[in-house]
Write a structure and sequence with these properties.
Chain lengths: 115, 418
């Protein structure tokens, strides 16, 4: 349901950031929790990678890798295991579309549209 | 996707802006007052403005003139950071349309939804958010020692003037001296903080006064966070320099003789950094917002509304949440709370099961650090935030983690105050 709503709002031209919590406050607040390391709106001020505008496939591949690997003592390995598959998938779309007209968001919308 | 649900959702999407008419109908924009502009207070204020698209009026009451970060403040003692490196202005909050008032709250009238400030004025609210941090509880220690310990010894457990003053005491200490540091029983702000401080003081002493010692007098039965990592760091980086005493609650202090007595022993010190037991910020306790035990506050973890009073939300270190009292948790709670308040004002149900992350770094020297990381998820059965699967600590301290820690600080400061 959440995926449908996110896709839908993307299709009607409302990006996850401007659609505010109405669509999915769960993912919005979770994505905002990532800001401590990855920056406000996923735009990092430091060495930690920015998530804003990351191609969704790349986001999903990395998170799948972190989630499935044995404990290596890394922060993302420890966080990825605590999130659901649905949350990871929605976060991919959320961060892709922080840059609303960027390539990553367009790719995400096209994929979601095709589903 | 079924066409029917698509259409329903499309409709829902298109009528979303209408919800704000509900908010405004009570007579102008709803007003939220935030008390305290630490990590939790600054973050909730900023996100209330951003996520309501400026439709909620936000006023922040904060007695301080600027923000000083507790995270990284131990590095001021170590000497690799200056106090200005961890200080930030509240100017950007003003640019978000937040009204900043430099004042203290003296009274909360929950029935009238009104605050009294120390400048004599009153301030009404639709929703109140308290982010009061911690207060120090010297009552037991003063009673057993017969001293006013707050006058004698620094805590430096709220970053700022005391951080600088403690650094000066460290600099004035003779080589061969003992820097004693007391750790209160859990819960207290920043569980790994005292042990990080031991590292940073030792880092300074190793360079400038190598015959000196750090004495950690811990009221707890063992190191309360990242235990194996701290033990390893102390042994490898500061061999023979850090003496750790568990089960060592303060029992008596003789300031003139510079002696301290604990549960089992007596120790001499040159500098005593007394980190006292803590409670929720006094403003919460003094206004009937503490739980039955009287030291911390209970809230509903969906909205962060107090269990004791309607329309009052409480965040951060003041809570009896069982979660570590960290900056990342405080800011994550602030975002869940901001989102919930906006939903409630719009007549909508907040997210029924919030989830957020905690990442906390400790520096063992100027350029090596280690972390603890966990996801926390709302458990509908216990109605508490519980650790999700995964979670854990670093394999070992490293320079790479110190780079991550620096990035963490830049990002969380910018997120709260940028």
């Amino acid at each position: 349901m959440r995926i449908i709503l996110t896709v839908l709002l993307s299709l009607v031209g409302v990006t996850p950031l401007t659609m505010a919590g109405q669509a999915d406050s769960h993912i919005r607040s979770l994505a905002a929790s990532c800001a401590a390391c990855h920056g406000y709106e996923g735009k990092s001020q430091g060495e930690t990678p920015s998530l804003a505008g990351m191609p969704p496939d790349q986001f999903l591949d990395r998170m799948r890798h972190y989630r499935d690997m044995d404990d290596d003592g890394s922060v993302m390995n420890q966080h990825a295991k605590g999130l659901t598959r649905e949350e990871i998938s929605l976060l991919a779309g959320y961060f892709a579309c922080v840059v609303p007209d960027g390539t990553a968001c367009n790719t995400y919308r096209q994929k979601a549209d095709g589903q | 996707m079924k066409r029917r649900s698509f259409n329903q959702l499309m409709l829902a999407g298109l009528i979303l802006p209408g919800m704000w008419r509900n908010i405004a109908s009570a007579g102008g924009a709803p007003r939220v007052v935030v008390v305290g502009a630490g990590f939790a207070g600054a973050t909730v204020a900023k996100y209330l403005r951003l996520w309501s698209q400026g439709r909620v009026e936000v006023t922040v009451i904060e007695p301080g003139s600027g923000f000083v970060s507790c995270p990284v403040s131990n590095l001021v003692l170590g000497g690799s950071r200056q106090i200005q490196d961890i200080s930030r202005s509240y100017d950007v909050l003003r640019q978000h349309g937040i009204q900043m008032r430099q004042a203290s709250v003296t009274q909360i009238d929950a029935g009238k939804r009104q605050l009294k400030l120390d400048d004599g004025t009153h301030l009404g609210y639709d929703k109140l958010v308290l982010a009061p941090g911690i207060s120090f509880d010297y009552s037991h220690l003063n009673a057993v020692t017969g001293l006013d310990l707050q006058q004698h010894f620094l805590h430096a457990w709220k970053a700022g003037a005391q951080t600088v003053a403690l650094k000066q005491q460290l600099q004035a200490m003779p080589d061969g001296g003992v820097f004693a540091l007391t750790v209160p029983a859990l819960p207290y702000r920043c569980p790994p903080g005292p042990y990080e401080r031991a590292c940073q003081v030792a880092y300074y002493l190793k360079q400038h006064k190598p015959r000196s010692k750090v004495l950690v007098l811990d009221a707890n039965p063992a190191i309360t966070s990242k235990r194996a990592l701290f033990e390893k760091a102390w042994a490898e980086l500061y061999p023979g320099m850090i003496e750790y005493q568990p089960v060592s609650e303060l029992k008596q202090i003789d300031p003139a003789q510079r002696m301290v007595r604990t549960t089992f022993d007596t120790f001499r010190f040159d500098v005593l950094n007394l980190i006292p037991p803590q409670t929720a910020g006094r403003i919460a306790l003094d206004n009937g917002l503490a739980n039955a035990e009287g030291r911390w506050c209970d809230v509903d973890y969906v909205s962060y509304e107090s269990k004791q009073a309607q329309h009052i939300h409480i965040l951060g270190d003041a809570l009896d949440s069982g979660l570590p009292k960290s900056a990342h948790i405080a800011t994550s709670e602030a975002k869940v709370c901001a989102s919930a308040i906006i939903d409630i004002l719009a007549g909508q149900a907040p997210d029924p099961a919030p989830v957020f992350a905690n990442t906390c770094y400790s520096y063992v020297s100027a350029d090596e650090a280690m972390h603890v990381a966990n996801v926390y998820r709302y458990d509908e059965k216990s109605r508490e935030m519980k650790p999700a699967p995964g979670g854990g600590v670093s394999k070992q301290h490293s320079a790479g983690e110190a780079r991550e820690a620096r990035s963490w600080a830049s990002n969380i400061w910018h997120d709260a105050l940028g």
